[in-house]
Amino acid sequence: MSDKPIRPATEPQPVEDVQGDGRWMAQHTRFVQECKDAEPDVLFVGDSMVQLMLQHDIWREMFSPLHALNFGIGGDTTCNVLWRLQNGELDNIKPKVVVLWVGTNNHQHTAEQVAEGILAVAQLLTSRLPKAKVIILGLLPRGERPNPLREKNSAVNGLLRSRLPRPGQVLLLDAGPGLLQPDGSLSQRDMFDFLHLTAAGYAAVAKPLSELLLQILEETPEERRASLV
């Protein structure tokens, strides 16, 4: 029999320190320390799409004022985020909203497996933070023109959309279609390498996300509880 896990994208794993400089674990350790010192209303967690927000004005102007923490690490997969969250990155904090953006680095997994991995992270978040809303940001299109990886990301979003109850504690926000040009291509104005976002690209994603966050944060506790039923 095979020893491979049936749901490989749901297996918590730290990143192997191939370079030998301990960068990934050092970032994780810093996040765990931040949990001891901060009282965030919003937690962002995921891969480089989350991490690189810190380099743009949208973080300082739109998200930091919401008492937000950014726990993004470039290159992370669902497996890595699961490990981080199970090993201290949710200790001592009770955010009202968690923004989850991960999955595009799960190259070895099928669309079905990636969706399972993302939903496993969301399930962990809701079990540890039963009063919080979770916003899953859909995977963005990648590559200048249509390609298999873009089709895979789109399939992941479709699976998430079909499996998330509405309304519910976990919401899906897919801002990807707004980045596509009429001919189906991506512009370097929005994605400088056709994967990572520019300031303009982040602005396009941030607008609907900010509106949703403000809507949730302005709910009364009674309204929030009612929406979770």
Automatic annotation (TrEMBL):
Domain of life of the native organism: Eukaryota
Alphabetical keyword list? Cytoplasm, Hydrolase, Lipid degradation, Lipid metabolism
Q: Give a yes or no for keyword Lipid metabolism in this entry.
A: yes
Gene Ontology CC terms, in alphabetical order: cytoplasm
Task: Tell me what reaction this enzyme catalyses.
Answer: 1-O-hexadecyl-2-acetyl-sn-glycero-3-phosphocholine + H2O = 1-O-hexadecyl-sn-glycero-3-phosphocholine + acetate + H(+); a 1-O-alkyl-2-acetyl-sn-glycero-3-phosphocholine + H2O = a 1-O-alkyl-sn-glycero-3-phosphocholine + acetate + H(+); 1-O-hexadecyl-2-acetyl-sn-glycero-3-phosphate + H2O = 1-O-hexadecyl-sn-glycero-3-phosphate + acetate + H(+); 1-O-hexadecyl-2-acetyl-sn-glycero-3-phosphoethanolamine + H2O = 1-O-hexadecyl-sn-glycero-3-phosphoethanolamine + acetate + H(+)
- Spell out the CDD domains in the cross-references: PAF_acetylesterase_like
Name a biological process GO annotation.
Answer: lipid catabolic process
Q: Which GO terms describe its molecular function?
A: 1-alkyl-2-acetylglycerophosphocholine esterase activity; platelet-activating factor acetyltransferase activity
What name does this protein carry? Platelet-activating factor acetylhydrolase IB subunit alpha2
* UniProt organism field: Merluccius polli
